[in-house]
Each structure stands twice: as structure tokens, then as C-alpha cells.
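REQUEST ID: PR-0412
SUBMITTED BY: lab tech R.K.
PRIORITY: routine
TASK: structure prediction, single protein chain
INPUT:
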Amino acid sequence: MKKTLATIVLLSAITHAGMAQTKNDSTVVSIYQEIVKMSKEVANDKSKNIEVRKIATFKDDALFYMAMRMGEQMPDSTIMVLDNQAIALYNFIHLFQTKIGRSSSHKEREKILKMFQDASFKHPRFNDMDYDLVRAYCKGDKYITRFSLDTDWVKALAYVRKELGLD
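STATUS: complete
OUTPUT:
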């Protein structure tokens, strides 16, 4: 039910953004903004499971990092670039959660985690050398989302889909 609701909200945001005539229209809510909003709501909802909240925090941090770095390195980028990255991140995390949830052993979960980590590490977006920052979620097993903040989520998603034989 939660996944269905999240999908409906995401599709609603996509439809709304697609119907907007210009990016200067102040009523436009981008997909990026909608995913950030949803992630913040889940992260701050104390009634949610702590692992779900940590995943939402990762999404929020990854999208904030991306917007910050794009503003610095690619100031002429459009919101569409952020939207595409946000959708890919959302799908990457969803696919990861699905695969982890269906795994039957610790060994299988570790193999899945490594595949998704490899996708994240092999596809940096900005080539940021500040590993303390971009790999903050990768230290230890405190977070299930042990991925780099500096990830091209479109490429990382394509990589795991290919590895899983989904494309």
C-alpha cells in the first residue's frame, strides 16, 4: 500500500511537472522537489521504522548533495537534469530494497549490496575526491544504503539493471 501511494504521488508530480509551460512558473513542483519533500516527511516521521527513516535520509542527503554540486559545477543545468537523477535514485533505491527483501541468506544480501555499491562507486557524477563526505554512508553497517553521494544515478541504475538482466 505504501509503495502504491508513493508511486501515485510520484506520478502525480511527473504529470504536474509535465503540464507546466515554463520553468519560471512559480507553481511548478519538480519531480526532484517532490521526492525531496517525500523523503523529508518519511525521515522526520517518528512513527516509521528507523531503517525506513535512514533510507529516506540518504535520499534527501543524496539529492541535496547533487543540487549543491550541480549549482557549483553546472550552473546552467536545468531542473530536468535534477528530475532525471531524482527518478533514477528513487528507482535505484526501490530496486535495491526489493532485491534485499527477497534475498534468502546473508551471503546473498552481501552480494546484492556489493553489486549496488559497485554501481554507485563506478559511476560518479562529479568525481568528488572528498571521500569523507561522499562516502559517509559507506562506513560500517550503520546504514543499509552504503552508497556514494557522488553518483550518477541514471548510469548506476542502468548498470544494476543490466547486471540483473532486467534490460
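NOTES: The radius of gyration is 16 Å.
REVIEWED BY: pending
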